[in-house]
Model the fold of this input.
Amino acid sequence: MSFISTSQDVLFLVLAFCALWLTVFLVWFLYYAIMTVKQTYQTVHQIKNKIDAVDEVISFIREKVTSTASYLTLIISAVRKIIDLLGNDDKEKKTKKKK
Done:
């Protein structure tokens, strides 16, 4: 009772080895494909976090600039009034000296 008695047994043995090697190759391929997808996901996630951080900083700066701009208009109008008052005092002093 020999294990390989006909050419059909040899064919089945070769087909079994081919199926085994095909399975090993598919498992290896799937492993690397899954690892590539995982690394891509992690990279995209890190990029998204950095973009969110930059957006947060830009929003913070925009908020500070707009609040400063509203105060800046008040400061500018106050400085103009002070300059007008000081300018009027100088003109009044000059007109008093001429008399």
